[in-house]
Amino acid sequence: MSASPIADFHVFPDAQGHFGRYGGSFVAETLVGPLQELAQAYDQARQDPAFQLAYDRDLAHYVGRPSPIYHAERLSDHVGGAQILLKREDLNHTGAHKINNTIGQALLAARMGKKRIIAETGAGQHGVASATVAARLGLECVVYMGATDIERQKINVYRMKLLGATVVPVTSGSATLKDALNEAMRDWVTNVQDTFYIIGTVAGPDPYPRMVRDFNAIVGREAREQMLAEYGRLPDAITACVGGGSNAIGLFHAFLNDREVEIVGAEAAGDGIHTGRHAASIAAGRPGVLHGNRTYVLCDDDGQIIETHSVSAGLDYPGVGPEHAFLADSGRARYVGITDEEALQAFHLLAHTEGILPALESSHALAQAMKLARGRPRDQIVLCNLSGRGDKDVHTIAAREGLVLTGVLLVLGLAACQPPEPPVLAPAAKAAAQPTAANDDVDPIARTPIDDPPAVTAVSSEDAPAVASVALDHAGEVLIGQHMSDLKGFGPWTAMGAAEAIGGSCEYYDGKGLPPGVSMMTDEDRVVRFDLGPGEDAKAPVDQPGPFGLRIGMTRAQAVAQFPGAPVSSPHAYDGDQGEYLTWQDPGSDLGIRLELFEGKDVPEMPVSRLDECFQRLRQQQRKALIPFITAGDPSLEATVPVMHALVEAGADVIELGVPFSDPMADGPTIQRSSERALARGAGTRYVLQAVAQFREQDAQTPVVLMGYLNPVEIHGYVAFANAAVAAGVDGVLLVDLPPEEAGEAQQAFDAAGLALVLLASPTTSEARADKLLALARGYLYYVSFAGVTGASERLDSDAASARLQALRGKASVPVVAGFGIKDAASAAAMARQADGVVVGSALVAVLAEAASVEDAAQRAAAFLTPLRQALDA
Question: How far apart are CA 622 and CA 371, in angstroms?
Fold first, then answer.
């Protein structure tokens, strides 16, 4: 992480919700449309004076803003050094900053006509704030809360129920905040038509990180104005606690362009980062994807999210808002770890010196404020965001100190009530706040430097002037006009100079008297040659990657789809062949790309993938594909391969093999529990690839498609994963939370390796978006038959699904298969009438879960699948 000369931090995020390399929208296809609808509604509301007036009125008359800045004089004297000021968010209605956000989102929900709101909560403050605004606006409210957090936040649970909310205990995973967020996501996927999800932190998919930040930014705007009005200056340093980071970004945002103000976030170091029992995502995490955005996450080397620990339920989260990740990498803010003990000492000290009980979350920031103050001149100012009050934490603190609270009675002698001695805090060295070199090395994704302006990236070479990157409306980012010497990753034909092709197969122009670009030749609707130089007639190696996402063997339609809106010329002759040009020009410059599309002749035969061959054979036989899904490693590690063979014997045409992931967003309870069992046995990504390789020892024909989530792939690295998967015998991969808008880098790596990236469509997919998905699809398109999670067969509307399938197949150049809700022969046959195949998952996984042995599992798999095969063939 290094400092960055970013001129204006307030221009972020970009139009796609990216803060540099972080942020974005990594969600299941079912949520893409609703998120776009939400973003549009939010942008319109921001421009509506009536909405802003209603929000401002509620902040003033319902929340009680502005919250004051309080000079903690006795605390400052005790600590010594700079003066400590507190931004008193604990005085808001409901007792924390959370209501700033819930008021805004609830007003937006009402504006959108939603009658039901859901929320996740850890410490309970966001849950209470959500229940509060729901009661005020007359909305149904459901709050998901980890069972562990319910136990340690009983007061807030009761408050939510008093306010009319339904509190749903979450027992999966670690039963804490991340699992509550997982469950809320699944609810939203299922009930997206009438439900508004009030996310409580600056995480999640776009537009949530910017929306939650904007609603909380009132904290920093007030603080900045109050500092100038009351003290005639800005603070020397500001600090706030960071879990997901909503209160922190609320304070930080107004000061980001004030370079003289030091910004420090306090993460939960738990028992100490060295112990592994902490929740310090920036200090000890790595870039990954969790809950819809790319950010720093705490995960193992296989990409599985690890359990976190903090005495504070609100900071017990294994990720952080993407804007915080961006600020850390840019150097504008630094993030330090505060241990449980340091936070508890700060709690007691503030109580003793100022008569204020801070929330345990806020106590982390307070401990850091004292570190910042000590050793500084007395005329300096440290401003700390006191994000919430600590009434909710009294039971937790008492229990930790050996006391038992029953109602309002203290069961122990008064002598036991004496808190620890006030802490002795030494000045914090700035260097200690930075992640270790080892953490810096954990960077599996090489992306745009953080200091680049949004949407335009400087690319330089020693032989040519810098040119700009142009983001196209397709998967990935094309470096139009990039110099040839920079393009060393596309294969053996990368050209190193004008009119000089290595391998005699492809050539890049560098602008030295020739227009930059690349041309492409097709034969029988297949790409067979990349050809640039005048008179060049060399063919590219078969099945090798090319520039700009082009690939030998891809269809002409797929190639053209990489450049939407590019004009295609009238046919022309070239060496006796009829063809046409497609040109794409960067508006306002001479940079562009030219594709030559020819019928061609004397072309080597294109290899056919197992997936293509399978569906071609089924089409010729007028049969439908039967695609069973099983979780790798369940019901046992030893059973996976025998079950795969048994399924093939029973009539499976393609096998979808689930890659277990700790935090799925679209899996129903059956598959989620199956993944948890498999992970407990050690069934990570490496095991899955080993199982496929073992399967290939006896079956070289049946296609295998891996189905899972992005973070394990991202942690292993796209190229490394793709190469390893293909080497093992994998034919395709379906990543539930990787929509095509975010898939550019992955798509390029997978195409290069010959690994099909299977895409999803759903009932919420618009017609225009469906056309785009069909153009980009590889292998087959998977249609999710209803908006919901896997296994909810009662939600299946066969007539509606059939109508949409018929429309998709009428436009598709790839097979379209249907899944979700298929549980038996009847439902499979009904869905197959309008699909090229059907996927059956949860019902089969449930049957396998009862197996007593490997042999029993194989027999159960065959017995389950056989009637489905018969129904499809009838």
Answer: 73
Distance in angstroms (rounded) separating the CA atoms of residues 24 and 239 = 26
* Secondary structure of 67-89 in HEC code, one letter for each residue: CCEEECHHHHHHHCCCEEEEEEH
Nearest C-alpha neighbor of 387 from the set 771, 87, 69: 87
What is the pLDDT averaged over residues 717-734? 96
Q: Which pTM was predicted? A: 0.79
Question: Can you give the pLDDT at residue 475?
Answer: 24
Residue 771: Cβ within 10 Å count: 16
In terms of pLDDT, which residue wins out, 536 or 176? 176
Are 106 and 133 in contact by the 8 Å Cβ rule? The answer is yes
**First-residue to last-residue Cα distance in the chain:** 62
Tokens at residue 713, please?
């792939």
DSSP label at residue 807:
H
Name all domains of the chain by residue range, CATH numbers in brackets.
9-424 (3.40.50.1100), 470-606 (no CATH), 610-873 (3.20.20.70)
Q: What single-letter amino acid sits at 394?
A: V
Whole-number Å distance between alpha carbons of 423 and 421 = 6
Residue 236's SS3 state is coil
The residues annotated with a catalytic role in the active site are 98, 120, 387
Tens of pLDDT, residue by residue over 22-42, are 999 999 999 999 999 999 999
CA distance 84 to 61: 28
Query: What SS3 class is residue 526?
Result: strand
Give strand ranges (E) for 171-292: 195-198, 237-242, 262-270, 286-290
95 is written with which tokens? 């007792």
- In the predicted structure, residue 439 carries a pLDDT above the cut 50: no
